[in-house]
Amino acid sequence: MSGDVAVDVRGVSKVFQDDQGRQVHALQEVSFQVGRGEIVALTGRSGCGKTTLLRIIMGLEHPSSGTVEVDGTPVNGPGVNRGIVFQNAELLPWRTALGNVEFGLEARGLGKAERREAAERAIELVGLGQAGNRRPHELSGGMRQRVGIARALAIDPAVLLMDEPFSALDAQTREKMQAELLEIHQRTGKTIIFVSHDIDESVLLADRVVTLVPDPGRVHGVLDTRLGDSIDLDERRGSDRFARRRHELLQLVHGRELSEQDGVSV
Amino acid sequence: MTALADSAAAPVEDESALSRRVRAQRRTGRDRLITAAGVVVLLVIWEVAARQVDPILAAPPSAVFTALLGMIADGSLPVAVWESAQPFLVGYVLAIVVGVPVGLLIGRFRVVEAAIGWLVIAGYAMPMIALTPVFMLWFGLGFAVKAAMVMTMTVFAISINTWNGVQNVPRSLIEVGTAFCASQPRILTQIVIPSVIPSIMTGLRIGIGKAVVGIVIAEFFTAIGGVGGVIVDAGHSFQPDRMFAAVVVLMLAAVALTGLIGLVERRLAPWNRSIAGGAH
């Protein structure tokens, strides 16, 4: 295994039992790799198993078959080499923003002073230096999600996993957060895997997009969506490449094939 | 067992939601004014109506107030309150000490729920006054029976609300603990217990009302002093003014204690109040 692979998903299947006891194939033989420092989006229509896949990578769910390796180590459960950002931030309401960021650090047995320092650094990184002592109910949706990102970054994970991180935000806040995610990525060089049902967001932010189709959930194609070195969203959006990739991704998401076109690696 | 729990949980939840709504509404000055006006109107109606009837049957607020002052001055009221307060406190604290852990255990472990969940539901639903005769046999006519009555009246409300709270701990928050590699004890102390505090406080608040009923029942039947004893004595000796004075004292005590619990809750769980109060 080359040292450049951060996450290796191999033949992952997931079978659920629904309420009537029927077997539901949420994922079938899903395989892909994510390079170190890469931003990869998992996208597809609802029911394609993209969130389940992310949860399996996080170790919150176990695959029925197949394996996930992070930095060459098999995933058997949650670990500090992965940090997760939930769709609705999921902050502890009785803790301050800083206290929430510290929560993840507490499990690692760091000293109090070290914890505080790491938490402050993370909260600074997401631009919330002034709001560290506020409780979640005193924060806006965007700020709450920043705290969620800071909490995940604070443990200094190899991989940052994000489950539809911006979908609960209003359009303007979302735009701002997307730009900041790219900045954070530029500064930290973290490997990022995020789930999104938003085609534009996937193309705009990700280096590659893994598209899944439902029944059973499987990889339909992997699209290279690198839009150049600029992290300016408007510049990215204005490029011809963006329009082309966006169109291609739509085709893939709807289950159509992309023959004779570049960018598709599967 | 789950169906049982759900059916038990629903009304309890309604009760807490209602009390939260009531608290939220008390905030504006206009509402306070309307409340004050309501009290005045009621007092006036009572005063006018009570003056029309035989003084053996009813007493107007003015007479009740005079009786109240007299009972404070001759020391009979402070003695009675102190006599009631001691078993009240002992029974109430016992109910917390027993009720909260039992509720936590039932909520957390299916086995415990299956074993004693039904008992808590039955205890909550049952009119405890039916047990008074047997309680007198067991605990006599003194301090112990009062404390026991208060405790049995209160403990089920506290248990059932705690239980309800544990069941309503958001799974997503537990998952945060799991995802960030927190140990089970850490998840319990850092996530489950803080989540349950508002429900426990709801149980304590509802428990105050139940406990007051408990102490009065015990004092009615044992009739050895206390505020309940004053009520019975005054009733038997045709002194409605003294009787109503004692009732008013009970009412004020219950309201004050409920308010106190609310204060403690705001201290312990400030986030809950701001969510319930509609911060959005």
What does this structure look like?
The complex is a heterodimer of chains A (266) and B (280). Chain A has 266 residues and is of the alpha/beta class. In chain A, 35% of the residues lie in helices and 26% in strands. In chain A, the strands form 2 sheets. A 6-stranded mixed beta sheet of chain A has the order 6-7-8-3-9-10, with helices on both faces. A 4-stranded antiparallel beta sheet of chain A has the order 2-1-4-5, covered by helices on one side. The radius of gyration of chain A is 18 Å and the shape is globular. In chain A, 42% of the residues are buried. By secondary structure, chain B is an all-alpha fold. Chain B is 85% helix and 0% strand. Chain B contains 12 helices and no strands. In chain B, helix 4 runs parallel beside helix 7, helix 4 crosses helix 10 (226-236) and helix 5 crosses helix 7. Chain B is globular, with a radius of gyration of 22 Å. The chains are: A alpha/beta (266), B mainly alpha (280). At the A-B interface, helix 2 of A face helix 8, helix 9 and helix 12 of B.
Q: What are the low-pLDDT stretches of chain B, counting only 5+ consecutive residues below 50?
A: 1-17, 275-280
Describe the sheet with the most strands of chain A.
Answer: 6 strands, mixed
The low-pLDDT segments of chain A are none
> How much strand of chain A?
25-35%
**Helix amount of chain B:** over 70%
* SSE sequence of chain B, one letter per element: HHHHHHHHHHHH
Number of helical segments with 4 or more residues of chain B: 12
Q: Can you give the mean pLDDT of chain B? A: 85
> What distance separates the N and C termini of chain B?
37 Å
Largest sheet of chain B: none
The spatial strand order of the largest sheet of chain A comes to: 6-7-8-3-9-10
Strand content of chain B: under 5%
Give the quaternary arrangement of the chains. heterodimer
